[in-house]
User: Fold this.
Amino acid sequence: MLKLKGIAASQGIAIGRAYCLGEDEFSIPKRKISYEEISREIYRMEEALIDTRKEIVTIQDKISKELGFSEAKIFEAHLLVLEDRVLIEDVIKQIKSKKVNVEFAFSRSIKKYTDALLNFDDEYLKERAIDIKDIGKRVLRKLLKRDTDRIYNIKEKVIIVTHDLSPADTAVLPKDKIIGFATDIGGSTSHTAIIARTLGIPAVVGLDVLTKHTVCNEMLIVDGSEGVVVVRPLERTIKSYQKKLEQIRKIEEAIHVPRAFKPKTVDGKEVIVSANIELPEELPLIKHFGAEGVGLYRTEYIFLGRNKLPSEEEQFKAYFNVAKTLKPSSVIIRTMDVGGDKFLSRPEMPHEFTPFLGWRAIRFCLARPDIFKVQLRAILRASVEKNIQIMFPMISGISELREAKRLLDECRGELKKEGRYFDNDIKIGVMIEVPSAALTADALAKECDFFSIGTNDLIQYSLAVDRANEKVAYLYEPAHPAVLRLIKDVISSAHKNNIWVGMCGEMAGEIIFAFLLLGLGLDELSMPPPRIPKIKELIRKIRLSDAKDAASKVIDFSTSAEIERYLQDYLRNILKGDSRQLLGA
Amino acid sequence: MDKVEQEIVVNNIHGLHARPAALFVQIANKFDSAVQLEKDGDIVDGKSIIAVLSLGVTKGTRIKLMLEGDDANEAFMELRKFLEENNA
Assistant:
């Protein structure tokens, strides 16, 4: 058993088998084995060799049919490697004498012999080294059960174990097969964390060495509340976590809110609670969790993980589908936020050392109107039901907003000329996530219809913390006094100019912060769907006057620890009975 | 039990690379006798493709073929024939 500490990224507990996703090069786990495990490891190798043999014979048959018998003969050497006694004995010797797992022993032996062949100054032998490497990879793949297609055929639900999960990876994963995420790198607002929270799947990130210690298919416990992953847990550890899981279920049932209830405080303030969504699969979750529309529809998934940009028609269909499904609720579509940690799989996106300060979001879009206008036209065309609003990310000053609006006007003109329908009064919002935008919110508010505060980025830019760097992730404090002051000013600038202001950052879905934000005057809270029932329940249990009182106090505090403690205590005092459990949720 | 040892010059056009090596190993494995190859003092198992390949036997290389077992003579005849023939 091995306990690893990482960063808690998405609450909840998952108990299940590891499913290792890797790049093409294997990260081979090295693990000490006990004397009793020796025969099991040898047996696993034999099985893997037999499976690989079958695989190669199948390929050989296929080639024999397609290209002829003599071409298929190439694989004779491959097959001999699989039953090569020198190789096999070398692996067994390592397993026995060094007490290491078979994956590690096997990869070492393969490396030893391929290196020896590569040393010859002979092209022919070098090619044979590549053959042996290829065979080695096939066997390792069997041992690590790493065939990417396999995940679609598995019956059991799994925990995804990987070094890092890119947005492109996530887009192709079958979400219904995943019960947990555990990654080597990342912080609590990295892409994996956001996806996990959106889907309500427990996740721990920033585990550093997890993939080095985990063998595919092994038992794993992911504790997304404590930020702990247990590799190869003991029977009694599994039992104790199963108990915890049961408790969590009970809490969830206790705060189960009838979906249709409007979130309204005891003293009558109605609050809009909406959902952040990223993928079309999440649409059913919106009704399920009782959200009022979508406060943030991320459109990146349409652009990621592909070689060709999506056409206007394809985008139109995607946006229209969401708008039609959710009608009459409104949908705020954020234009593409590529760059940062989300890249288009295209050569156009150059490598940047500080991508979060670089060419991304609206900056990329304004530089490439040919790409941006396709999206704007698609959004406009999808707005015929009059429930779409449009939001620009990463605005850092008024001129970017003006330029974006100018391009939108151009699209309007074009569509009009083409005789196409769209919502001529479409509302335009600015995402407030750059400190310079927050500080000049009064100017921005005069030229748009709403604000949505994106706290994930606002926090990292204000506090100069790279949220994916686990070494500094501890500095990422949502309740930092600097952040709260910015939020307060943004809200007052918005209200002075008679526009509404919401929040679509992670902060909006946290109980104590939601309470604080309402007190600061926020009109809308948008969050991952699974958070919605708890936040709605909170709203129904508090008075706006209490929230205002608490907010007016903490705004003068000097540390986030004090602020959080005060809010916790305040809520504990005003919440009664069962609803106190919200504080643990 | 018979024991045969003899030096042979490999005439096979690709030496003991890939397919020739694979064929050699396949022939060696047909027999019960132990098959060993020696080149410049390195002795390897002649029934292992990896070992035979890593000996780096090119055309014209002089190697020693060493066999031991009940069918050593028979095995020797076949393996020598294979090595000396220019059959790639």
Summary: Chain B is about 35% helix and 30% strand. The domain at 2-84 of chain B is CATH 3.30.1340.10 (Histidine-containing Protein; Chain: A;). The radius of gyration of chain B is 11 Å. The first strand of chain B starts at residue 2 and ends at 9.
